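Retro notes (design track)

What went well: tokenization of the new backbones is finally stable.
What didn't: we kept losing track of which sequence belonged to which structure.
Fix going forward: every design gets posted as structure first, then sequence, in one message. First example under the new rule, 224 residues:
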């Protein structure tokens, strides 16, 4: 296991995945791209978009249906996917791709083969983040392994809180973001210090594709 670097996140003024109306905390969604208000409310704690440096490592433990799995992801050089620039992380087997413009998840590759993907992206992020902000994003999702094809999905998200969260890697101040679609709920805690989530809980309850619950927590990390 990597050396644990514990600490409380530093607030940045101003984003596992996350994006129609306007005024404070509301956005307009067009073809999967969320257009957020230009500024946060006066005095709001905010977080700007950012991604960990190349070479940074994050160790996560996931629990799904009673099974536990540990993965260590390393941040790679930026790349492209379907003609769009992406951030990349890999554990040596799986590579996760994130839309560079929004930091929302786009695809997971296993040994170079696409396992699952969202187009244009999953819409779970919309920077800057602040408590009370909400957004919506239209997208399509395909899981090639499980045979799931959802061509017309809408993800609605809101920043519910900026709060302290404890995980094995330490204690962090994080933005709690809550997202939902027709059959899924996703809650994650995003650390602006790390530019990554430190915990997330995903649940699916679909009459066609069944139920699933997956929890992930950060065990350790190294930024340099």
């Amino acid at each position: 296991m990597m050396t644990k670097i514990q600490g409380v996140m530093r607030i940045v003024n101003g984003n596992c995945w996350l994006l129609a109306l306007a005024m404070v905390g509301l956005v307009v969604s067009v073809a999967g791209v969320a257009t957020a208000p230009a500024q946060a409310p006066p005095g709001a704690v905010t977080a700007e978009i950012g991604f960990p440096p190349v070479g940074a490592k994050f160790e996560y433990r996931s629990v799904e249906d009673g099974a536990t799995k540990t993965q260590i992801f390393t941040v790679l050089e930026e790349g492209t996917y379907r003609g769009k620039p992406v951030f990349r992380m890999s554990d040596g087997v799986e590579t996760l791709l994130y839309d560079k413009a929004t930091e929302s998840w786009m695809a997971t590759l296993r040994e170079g083969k696409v396992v699952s993907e969202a187009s244009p992206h999953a819409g779970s992020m919309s920077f800057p983040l602040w408590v009370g902000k909400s957004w919506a994003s239209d997208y399509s999702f395909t899981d090639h392994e499980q045979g799931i094809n959802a061509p017309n999905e809408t993800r609605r998200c809101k920043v519910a809180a900026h709060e302290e969260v404890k995980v094995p890697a330490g204690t962090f101040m994080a933005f709690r973001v809550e997202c939902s679609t027709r059959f899924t709920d996703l809650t994650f805690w995003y650390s602006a210090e790390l530019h990554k989530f430190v915990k997330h809980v995903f649940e699916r309850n679909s009459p066609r594709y069944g139920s699933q619950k997956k929890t992930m927590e950060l065990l350790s990390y190294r930024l340099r």
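Added context from the reviewer: The two ends are 15 Å apart (CA to CA).
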